[in-house]
Amino acid sequence: MTLALIQKQSQELANLVTSTLGPRGRSILISRPDIGEPARLTKDGATVARSYNKQTPGAQLLKEASQYVEQKAGDGTTTATLLANELIQLQALNYEESQALIRAGNDAIDFLQSIADKVSSIKNVALTSLNGDIDGANMISEAYEICGSVQVTNGTEDSLKIITGARFESGWLSPYFCLNHQGKSITYDHPIIFAVDGVLEQPDQLIQALETASQNDSPLVVIASDVTGQALSLLIANHIKSAVKCVAVRSPGFGNVKSTNIQDISLMSQGKPITIKNAQLATIGKCQKFTTDDRQFFINFEESAQLSAQKQSVQKELRNQSSPFMVSQINDRISRLNGKIAEITVGGASEISQRERRDRFDDAIGACRAASQKGVVAGGGSALLQASSYILELTSGNKTDNKMRKILSDVLKKQLYKICENSGISGLYIEEKLRNQGLNAVYDVVKNEIGSFQELGIVDPVDVCCEAIRSAVQLASQVLRVGGSIIDEERK
Length: 492
Fold this sequence. Notes:
By secondary structure, this protein is of the alpha+beta class. The chain has 19 helices and 17 strands. The chain folds into two domains: 1-118 and 377-480, GROEL, domain 1, CATH 1.10.560.10; 133-374, GroEL (3-Layer(bba) Sandwich), CATH 3.50.7.10.
């Protein structure tokens, strides 16, 4: 009974999320008056999954698996939801079968990694993720070509501009900071920057910064070695109650790297030193704009004499270094101090349209980042179809392994089938046509033609495909061995 309940709940969420898959997927209406959010239409599977508010065990398990993929690879929520749900709908597995399923998933991942190509066109990656929005793909491609760092903001119309700024690999310390914000990121204009080379644990360490933000009617950004305990709770409480809009992020790196990042951020924000407990350096300053999500943050700043002097000092330090590791670290630091960031402004005919497009741009940029790091494979379900054929051919003397490879092989076809179904086309017919075309073949549902993914520009980041498979088999191997449940009556 427990497994049947989980399967039913998972299927309900999967039906909504996967109906958005592909360039001809459907839009989903989201209305959340309980949290004061206006009605919106979206074709972004990640947004649909996040907005699904039924607190059922099956749906929550599926959401966690798909959101893990988005966090790891920047995109792929819809594919992960599709694969995980298809596997969850199987019959219960014994221990040997669950382990064989994981091994089959690893075989598929190894195959995809072996056929991945270096990304030759960021534009094609963006075009696939944006469902054919060529103007948006051109903007993202141009932004990556100029800068390599891209942030997205809302506006009245689409535009691209290059601004002075730096990107750091560290995101917000709590998702509660994002509760009152649209989309997956937080953006503050002209915030107070409280940069601390030390750990913030007590509320009294934050008093001066909070007072400054309140007096200036500005948001507060806290960047420290770490923010924990009562200090973090105080910032979250202020943010949720809208007393002072806040966000806290951890300075990236370790040891001296963490300290030098704080020093540079203090100069970027033209911070003035203050004294607080247990901190080697603490400054309060201001920047033009601050943007963060769960993985990274951007600071847009103005040039200053102090910043120019810091650049010269770091350049001298580079000339005196012989360690390859330190040379790499210092070059990264120089790049940030000389930083340029591409800012894409996303517009729309209405607030609903703008938010839907913003969601897709966020996903597209995540996909481009993953593709540039690990490479790409044929998109549109073709790569998973090839992986399906590959693992089916890996027969061995172990009957359990063969059985689970056959099961996973059937599931991996479902991405192509669902894209075709959402386009009113027979997936089985397209599968037969693709099987004789080689590894590079893809089906373009918009043009109704088959060709190479390089020519048609239909690509998927290999990391997205691999993480979707990994997450799906890991979840299914546990869910299909569930032996009971403890559920509050009101949540049944």
